[in-house]
Amino acid sequence: MRPLRLLLSLSLCGLAPVGCSSSPASPLSPLPGSWVGDAVSFSLTGVVVSDIAVKGVSCAIESPDPTAPPICSAIPAVPKTASDVLVMTSTPSFLIEAGDLTIQGTFDAAGHAKGVYTFRSTGCCSAPGNCCTASGAWEAWHTTWRDQKGPPKPPSDVGAVSDTGAMVTEVPPVGDSGSLPDSGGASGTASGRAITHANAYRAHYPGLQPLKESPAITQAAQAHADYYATNFSAYQSGKIGAHDESKDFPNGFTGASFGDRLRAAKATEDPSFEVIAFVDDPEGSVDSWIETVYHRIPFFSPDAGSAGYGHHKAPARIDVMDFGAKKAPSEVLVPYPWPDQTGVPRSWDGNEGPRPPAPPKGYPSGPVVSLSVPEGTPLDITAHVLLDPSGKEIAHVWHPRGANGFMSAMWALYAHGPLGSQTRYTTRLTGTLRGKPWSLEWSFTTSK
């Protein structure tokens, strides 16, 4: 199987973490980890807010001449710096002033935050005081809340999925007890948590076997995370690529490529995939990879059989997950979102490196819809539609198998813009399988 070398950063514009407050702890303790919303997303560690991403905000001033274009237009509101503190009061809140953008937020529940943002461009307008301004409300939810709403699953309970779910998207109970399926021997370590969380997604597909935790692959992934932290300045300056190690920086070196590192750890599996994120969160990194196009591939690949995860804390925050290959039956087809899934995020910001083809007006797009198969499956897809509840076709980007070296066993599509709230959409694919007519149709429902 062709190794994939991918990179994902959840932080837009390389924001620095928000500093800590010395205020006393509040009776309300927001859940740590990744928080997501339609407008504002961020990470929370203790009282530190970081990895802030804001999307879909712009402003314009109408020109005095009605025939002239707006004086200011399409100015993205993305923070460039983030140096203010998270102020913990009786209701934990924070205020971030990042260049032209101010974000105010309040945690009103352990897994819910809300607030307002204001964008005031001081550089785009010629006349003093005549500047572009945009503002709006936002909400964000911790990733353990079902359908992005409460109540949350306790973060320490990583061995089970209750009827409240374990992801941003809803995970229904599995089996009579509501426990996760066989995790393939995954332990309660960070690596075991990541693999257990990945297997919660894979459990929705009959015939798609759970990933097995490989101690050797875990060792290789952790070694690379440690190497990244040891040589953090070299990575930050671009002297080493995120998936690479260099003998020019020998401290902690275990192999130039992830395949070399798996062999150094004496892994018996053939190397197949490596993905990287920068969140230091076993479950949160898996969720972030699955939202993408390319980084999603190993999680739904029938050819991925074993895995291991390594990580390192701030400031050299990194998540590394490596996968070993196995032989898969050719009849396994894996559509995502899974059939009848609810709580599917309405949009995707395209935040992935390399970045997949953008919609005509740029990101955000709709959520990524994909079909994964084993390598070499004799399937040709000749038609693809995304339908709203009335049967109207939704314009979308089509990213087929073979479009590049990454897309060797997956097709993907995503709408040109965010989808509607709590709306059921249907995907229909048609073509030939082993030379005979073939079609697949399934539906999913978006979040609020």
Produce the secondary structure layout:
Elements: E1 4-5, E2 33-36, E3 40-45, E4 48-54, E5 86-87, E6 93-98, E7 101-109, E8 112-120, E9 133-142, H1 190-202, E10 212-213, H2 215-230, H3 232-236, H4 258-264, E11 271-277, H5 282-290, H6 297-300, E12 304-312, E13 318-325, E14 334-336, E15 341-344, E16 369-372, E17 379-387, E18 396-399, E19 410-415, E20 424-433, E21 436-446
Parallel strand pairs: 1-11, 10-12, 15-21
Antiparallel strand pairs: 2-3, 2-9, 3-4, 5-6, 6-7, 7-8, 8-9, 11-13, 12-13, 14-16, 16-19, 17-20, 18-19, 20-21
Helix pairs in contact: 1-5, 2-4
Structure, described:
By secondary structure, this protein is of the alpha+beta class. It has an eight-stranded antiparallel beta sheet, with no helix packed on it. Strands 1-11-13-12-10 form a five-stranded mixed beta sheet, with helices on both faces. Strands 14-16-19-18 form a four-stranded antiparallel beta sheet, with no helix packed on it. The chain is 12% helix and 29% strand. Strand 5 (86-87) and strand 6 form a beta hairpin. The protein has helices spanning 190-202, 215-230, 232-236, 258-264, 282-290, 297-300; strands spanning 4-5, 33-36, 40-45, 48-54, 86-87, 93-98, 101-109, 112-120, 133-142, 212-213, 271-277, 304-312, 318-325, 334-336, 341-344, 369-372, 379-387, 396-399, 410-415, 424-433, 436-446.
